[in-house]
């Protein structure tokens, strides 16, 4: 067998490889230099962002993005040195339609990634903030590039995609230093509203944790079926969940005890059914009734108790 052709091919490959060795060496050196440069850029971005007061998650994200960008640039430079015919434009053209297909396939991932960056940049909430999103409420544990995790008050973890948090309404309970709480309390229609208001304010002012500036207030909000509803409102600081629940527990206990001691009625819902006709003489005593009509001036129908019973009628056979 004639191995001359194969031997020529191997010789040609060897000569090409030896000719390419300097380029490969220079390419490796360039990539190593870019790796060192990427680490320096990452450290520099972290220092700059922390000096500007940016949150740790944002600082970490920006430093990682800068590190990856420098590595990608280093790879392109190294490949260009190793393969002189290679250019970034040829890479883009090589991706072509495949890049579009990849973009559609990873659309949700890219959307969440961009939303995560915007959340970290705009900072509508931070780590350790307590937020409420739809049916989920808890403390923010981490804001990552894909999703945000919160720890609910009953000790569960919820992972929410960043795109949902960025495009939907989110309630940040700890955005401000103070938070106002409120609770509706019903008193009887026969009770003195001004007296009940005074007692409720006195009770709230005596509770530890209730702020005096702004101070508590009591408003009449509804004339309900069975009660006159008074809305107690007070402010607390800090507005975290544990402090809110503790303040509400103390305020409701103090208000209830204060009203009960003063003889203020706290009625429960009741319903009254009257079996009578208002047009008959045998109706109830209108001088004393309070079922929704006044006694009126002049003669009023006699009370049922004052009307003699009807004599029994003989039965005809």
From TrEMBL:
List every stretch annotated Disordered: 277-317
Q: How does it sit in the membrane?
A: Multi-pass membrane protein
What spans are recorded as compositionally biased (Basic and acidic residues)?
277-291
Superkingdom, natural source: Bacteria
Location(s) in or outside the cell: Cell membrane
Query: What are the transmembrane regions?
Result: 20-41, 61-83, 89-106
* Record's keyword annotation contains Translocase: no
Q: Which InterPro entries match?
A: LSM_dom_sf, MS_channel_C, MscS_archaea/bacteria_type, MscS_beta-dom_sf, MscS_channel_2nd, MscS_channel_C_sf, MscS_channel_CS, MscS_channel_TM-2
Q: Where is the Mechanosensitive ion channel MscS C-terminal domain?
A: 183-265
Presence of keyword Transmembrane? yes
The chain positions of domain Mechanosensitive ion channel MscS read: 108-171
Q: Keywords on this record? A: Cell membrane, Membrane, Transmembrane, Transmembrane helix
By sequence similarity, the record places it as follows:
Belongs to the MscS (TC 1.A.23) family.
Protein name according to UniProt: Mechanosensitive ion channel family protein
Biological source species: Hymenobacter saemangeumensis
């Amino acid at each position: 067998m004639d191995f001359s052709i194969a031997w020529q091919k191997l010789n040609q490959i060897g000569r090409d490889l030896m000719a390419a060795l300097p380029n490969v060496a220079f390419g490796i050196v360039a990539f190593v230099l870019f790796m060192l440069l990427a680490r320096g850029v990452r450290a520099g971005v972290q220092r700059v962002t922390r000096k500007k007061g940016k949150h740790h998650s944002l600082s970490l994200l920006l430093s990682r993005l800068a590190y990856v960008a420098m590595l990608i640039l280093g790879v392109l430079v190294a490949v260009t040195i190793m393969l002189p015919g290679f250019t970034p434009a040829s890479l883009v053209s090589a991706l072509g339609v495949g890049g579009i297909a990849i973009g559609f396939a990873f659309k949700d991932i890219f959307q969440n990634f961009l939303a995560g960056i915007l959340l970290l940049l705009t900072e509508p909430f931070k780590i350790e903030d307590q937020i409420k999103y739809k049916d989920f409420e808890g403390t923010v544990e981490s804001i990552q590039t894909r999703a945000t995790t919160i720890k609910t008050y009953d000790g569960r973890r919820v992972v929410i995609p960043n795109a949902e948090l960025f495009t939907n309404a989110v309630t940040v309970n700890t955005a401000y230093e103070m938070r106002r709480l409120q609770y509706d309390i019903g008193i009887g229609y026969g009770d003195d509203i001004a007296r009940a208001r005074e007692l409720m304010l006195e009770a709230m002012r005596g509770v530890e944790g209730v702020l005096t500036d702004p101070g508590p207030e009591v408003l009449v909000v509804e004339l309900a079926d069975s009660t006159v509803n008074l809305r107690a409102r007070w402010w607390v600081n800090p507005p975290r969940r544990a402090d809110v629940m503790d303040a509400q527990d103390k305020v409701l206990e103090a208000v209830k005890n204060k009203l009960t001691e003063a003889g203020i009625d706290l009625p429960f819902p009741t319903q009254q059914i009257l079996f009578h006709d208002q047009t008959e003489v045998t109706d109830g005593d209108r001088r004393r009734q309070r079922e929704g009509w006044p006694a009126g001036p002049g003669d009023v129908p006699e009370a049922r108790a004052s009307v003699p019973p009807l004599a029994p009628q003989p039965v005809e056979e």
